[in-house]
Specification:
The complex is a heterodimer of chains A (about 325) and B (about 100). A two-stranded antiparallel ribbon of chain A has the order 1-2. Chain A is about 65% helix and about 0% strand. Chain A has 13 helices and 2 strands. By secondary structure, chain A is mostly helical. The longest helix of chain B is centred in the middle third of the chain and has 12 residues. The model of chain B has no long low-confidence stretch (mean pLDDT about 90). The chains are: A mainly alpha (about 325), B alpha+beta (about 100). Chains A and B meet through helix 4, helix 5, helix 7 and helix 13 of A and strand 2 and helix 1 of B.
Chain lengths: ~325, ~100
């Protein structure tokens, strides 16, 4: 998902019998659906896992602005351009809500930023793919934001208060993202054959990376099981992926687009769509930094951070000067 | 809380009044160099969809919070004073306007 392969630092899922008294008391609060708040005592492993997960999630929102920013100057109409800018501004806002949630866990904003720029903290694999034609913008809204909603709605109920509250705000805004994407694709699919072909091309390229967003099957993963026990992961990767496929196939049919998977078919017995094998080698290559755009994305973020340094410094200097002037005026009075 | 490193802008808490007549409500936090910057950023981050008609910002370092370990001592005494609620007093059906 937006946070993939989050390491809990555990070799086995914590066992209630062998836990320390503090950890057991903490687990009982989680089991009773009591929200954990920043000042509350929490096991170090829970805190560290949450920092990693929310940082990845926040970085995904911020890096996620880049593939879309690629099309701001070339949007086909003023209406589409205004919508795209509003969406990109939302992504920045989502990143900021989540960065604030990380800070409540005792990590400074600068430390989080530096973790991204140094390549130590990850972001979602999906944002390392290029946006090659205008229909990619619609496809991202429809598929990528659609997949994000699938994951984020359960997270509104997660055990950590600030993360859950950030998710509530984000989910309220995400629906606009998904609908504007579908609306854009409806326009293209009802347009000329060339426009419809662009939409099909975008779906062909984004379908499999979108399914990879949910991460590899994790039914047997220690980290996923521990995160589930802590209620910071509510559903398994495969459960979410199946829901996503089931809801998306009829939408593609409505658009008259073909999902690029010859194995895709309705399984009446299961009541779900079956789908073909996912190329996990590609996923792990992208996660390891070898996707089509990994290097470009990080370079763009580093440049933005470095180019903005003088603004950050000037604002601090200005604030100090005004404060000193106010103090002097008060003393003189 | 640890001291902010180098040039990191200080943290501010943001409160928004959603409509005239309602109280300001905490919505989140953000970084800004000064109060004017905090208000500007709050407008961009927290009111993109008509969420507010008024914004307050306060430095996070100026807020004081009750401690979680005092929770029982502070809040438990209210739990057994059910007579503070109007529903404690059953009223006869035939008596009106009470």
């Amino acid at each position: 998902m937006y946070a993939q392969l989050v390491d809990t630092g555990q070799k086995a899922v914590q066992d209630d019998a062998t836990m320390s008294a503090e950890d057991r008391a903490f687990q009982q609060r989680i089991d009773a659906d009591v929200k954990i708040e920043p000042q509350d005592a929490m096991p170090e492993a829970y805190r560290r896992t949450l920092v990693r997960q929310i940082q990845q999630h926040a970085h995904s929102e911020i890096v996620g602005m880049l593939p879309e920013g690629n099309w701001v100057t070339r949007a086909p109409s003023l209406k589409r351009k205004a919508i795209l800018m509003a969406k990109i501004q939302d992504e920045a806002g989502h990143g900021l809500y989540l960065y604030s949630a990380v800070e409540t866990l005792g990590v400074t904003r600068d430390e989080t930023t530096e973790a991204l720029l140094a390549g130590k903290s990850k972001y979602s694999s999906i944002f390392n793919y290029p946006t090659l034609n205008w229909a990619d913008i619609g496809t991202i809204g429809w598929l990528v934001d659609g997949a994000a909603i699938m994951n984020q709605i359960p997270l509104c109920r997660c055990s950590y208060g600030p993360y859950a509250r950030a998710m509530v705000r984000i989910c309220k805004e995400e629906s606009f993202h998904q609908r504007q994407g579908f609306d854009l694709l409806m326009a293209m699919c009802r347009g000329t054959p060339e426009q419809k072909a662009m939409a099909q091309d975008a779906l062909d390229r984004w379908w499999w990376p979108s399914l990879m967003m949910f991460g590899p099957p994790d039914a047997s993963s220690v980290h996923s099981a521990q995160s589930a026990k802590w209620k910071i992961k509510l559903l398994s990767n495969d459960e979410l992926r199946q829901r996503f496929v089931d809801q998306t196939v009829p939408q593609a049919e409505y658009l008259g687009l073909v999902i690029p998977d010859p194995d895709l078919c309705w399984n009446a017995e299961r009541g779900h769509y079956d789908y073909g094998a996912i190329d996990w080698d590609e996923f792990f290559a992208v996660i390891a930094g070898n996707g089509p755009c990994n290097r470009e994305r990080l370079e763009t973020r580093r440049k933005a951070w470095d180019d903005g340094a003088w603004v950050r410094e000037a604002a601090v200097a200005h604030a100090a000067k005004v404060a000193a002037r106010d103090r002097a005026a008060k003393e003189a009075a | 809380m640890s001291t902010p490193p180098r040039n990191e802008w200080p943290l501010w808490e943001v409160f928004i009044r959603s409509q005239h007549g309602l109280a300001h409500k905490h919505v989140g936090s953000l970084h800004a160099a000064d109060a004017a910057g905090a208000l500007r950023n709050a407008r961009d981050v927290y009111t993109r969809r008509n969420e507010g008609v008024s914004i307050w910002v306060a430095r996070s370092s100026d807020l004081h919070a009750s401690a979680p370990e005092e929770r029982a001592e502070l809040f438990d005494p209210a739990a057994d004073k059910i007579y503070r609620h109007p529903t404690f007093f059953p009223m006869p059906d035939e008596v009106k306007h009470l």
